[in-house]
């Protein structure tokens, strides 16, 4: 069954593409019949079966964006897709194999085989690194539990030539130096006396590889997420969210005559300005096209639980940052609120979970009395409702529905203290500033 999985996906893709292009004219009976594989895919299946019958097994990449056992890609830029199949051969010195099949008029022929050592192919990525229309193949080899090795191959004339190799923890591909070709950025953690660092690889038009290295923040113990995006001025950058001593920090990497870490302090080598207590990761939180870095601030407590406000900063090429947005994230209930600037340092929250299927969070504005004691004006209550009677409870006196999503209804209630502390003094103002949380902000993704 596993041997056919990749080819089944190929066949379905081929049939769907033909249908969308209007290539087929079928009767109603024909539309409900099983799709027939084209002759060329039957030929490809024969080629792959020959490899399997010789003792190989499918061994698809275990990570990264491309995890199919059989993948199609126009490698040489001629407008015709080649096929790549991933295998392992037990007992071999280099057990991992990548077979490249060239498509002819109605057949596939073996063009090349890339062999590698290790326990698995960790990831495979495709990039045109010098803008010549020919794809470079970036392969991550899993050498052991703790070691991954990256190899970049040129595939000119569908014959692989090793360009460069490096150890890595995570990989990002983007045009970091804005020269029109993809750059490969390999991130690796500190090991023994070697500090953690990121290394960029650029392929020049003459085939020369130029590399540049920038250090990661000292003390980074693991990499949670690597995200490519843009700075405040539109310059490309790579954002590396890492874990250090129980905190989350972000190294912001960009290109300025070489790879530079613009968020790390020059004296300490640590991106202290990005340190946060929560596992929050970078995102374009305000949808302006640039990536923002979250920083947490503990709120004045009304109970033994510590709650945090989040400020999101956009970085410039020189390392300066600008506040883009402030939010409060209720991760347990899956929502967040955009906060007015006047609330920074002047609000807090508390939970009120008194009934089954009803979770509530209260926003309070903080003001001080003449003797300096903080007092709290309750402004807004947000309910997360579940259960059979959630519809009825969302419309209890004083409540209004913000969002109905799946098994939950989010409802609001404007409290007496909201007057004068906008924008949460109307249902429209509350709904406009309410958002759902996307899971990747919490879980990370490389």
List keywords for this structure.
446 residues, mainly beta, five-stranded antiparallel beta sheet, 27 strands, disordered N terminus, disordered C terminus
Q: Could you characterize what this model shows?
A:
The chain is mainly beta and 446 residues long. It has 6 helices and 27 strands. α1 (2-20) packs antiparallel against α3. The longest helix has 19 residues, at 2-20. Mean pLDDT is 88; it is low at 1-26 and 441-446.
In short:
With 446 residues, this protein is mainly beta.
Topology diagram in text:
Elements: H1 2-20, H2 28-31, H3 39-53, E1 57-58, E2 70-73, E3 82-88, E4 96-103, E5 108-116, E6 120-127, E7 136-142, E8 148-154, E9 161-167, E10 170-174, E11 183-188, E12 197-203, E13 209-215, E14 222-230, E15 236-244, E16 247-255, E17 259-261, E18 292-298, E19 308-315, E20 321-330, E21 335-339, E22 347-351, E23 358-368, E24 374-385, H4 390-394, E25 399-405, E26 408-414, H5 427-432, E27 434-436, H6 440-443
Antiparallel strand pairs: 1-3, 2-3, 3-4, 4-5, 6-7, 7-8, 8-9, 10-11, 11-12, 12-13, 14-15, 15-16, 16-17, 18-19, 19-20, 20-21, 21-27, 22-23, 23-24, 24-26, 25-26
Helix pairs in contact: 1-3
């Amino acid at each position: 069954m596993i041997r056919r999985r990749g080819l089944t996906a190929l066949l379905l893709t081929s049939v769907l593409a033909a249908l969308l292009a209007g290539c087929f004219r079928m009767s109603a009976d024909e539309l409900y019949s099983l799709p027939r594989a084209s002759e060329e895919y039957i030929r490809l299946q024969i080629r792959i079966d020959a490899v399997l019958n010789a003792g190989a097994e499918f061994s698809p990449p275990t990570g990264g964006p491309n995890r199919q056992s059989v993948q199609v890609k126009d490698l040489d830029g001629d407008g015709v897709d080649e096929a790549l199949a991933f295998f392992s051969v037990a007992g071999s010195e280099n057990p991992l194999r990548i077979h490249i099949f060239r498509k002819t008029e109605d057949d596939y022929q073996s063009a090349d085989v890339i062999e590698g050592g290790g326990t698995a192919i960790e990831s495979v990525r495709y990039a045109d690194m010098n803008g010549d229309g020919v794809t470079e193949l970036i392969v991550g080899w899993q050498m052991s539990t703790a070691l991954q090795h990256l190899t970049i191959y040129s595939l000119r004339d569908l014959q692989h030539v090793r360009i460069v190799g490096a150890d890595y923890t995570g990989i990002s591909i983007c045009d970091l130096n804005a020269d029109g070709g993809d750059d490969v950025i390999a991130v690796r953690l500190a090991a023994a006396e070697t500090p953690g660092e990121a290394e960029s690889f650029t392929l020049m038009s003459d085939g020369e590889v130029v590399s540049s290295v920038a250090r990661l923040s000292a003390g980074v113990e693991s990499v949670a997420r690597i995200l490519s995006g843009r700075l405040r001025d539109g310059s490309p950058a790579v954002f590396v969210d890492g874990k250090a001593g129980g905190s989350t920090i972000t190294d912001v990497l960009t290109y300025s005559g070489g790879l530079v870490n613009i968020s790390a302090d020059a004296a300490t080598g640590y991106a202290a300005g990005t340190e946060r207590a929560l596992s929050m990761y970078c995102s374009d939180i305000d949808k302006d096209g640039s990536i923002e870095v979250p920083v947490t601030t503990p709120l004045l407590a009304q109970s033994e639980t510590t709650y945090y406000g989040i400020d999101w900063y956009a970085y410039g090429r020189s390392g300066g940052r600008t506040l883009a947005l402030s939010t409060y994230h209720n991760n347990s209930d899956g929502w967040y609120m955009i906060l007015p600037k006047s609330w920074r340092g002047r609000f807090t929250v508390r939970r009120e979970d008194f009934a089954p299927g009803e979770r509530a969070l209260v926003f309070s504005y903080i003001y001080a009395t003449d003797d300096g004691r903080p007092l709290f004006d309750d402004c807004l209550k947000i309910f997360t409702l579940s259960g059979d009677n959630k519809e009825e409870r969302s419309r209890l006196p004083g409540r209004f529905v913000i969002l109905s999503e799946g098994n939950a209804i989010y409802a609001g209630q404007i409290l007496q203290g909201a007057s004068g502390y906008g924008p949460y003094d109307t249902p429209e103002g509350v709904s406009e500033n309410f958002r759902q949380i996307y899971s990747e902000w919490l879980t990370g993704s490389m």
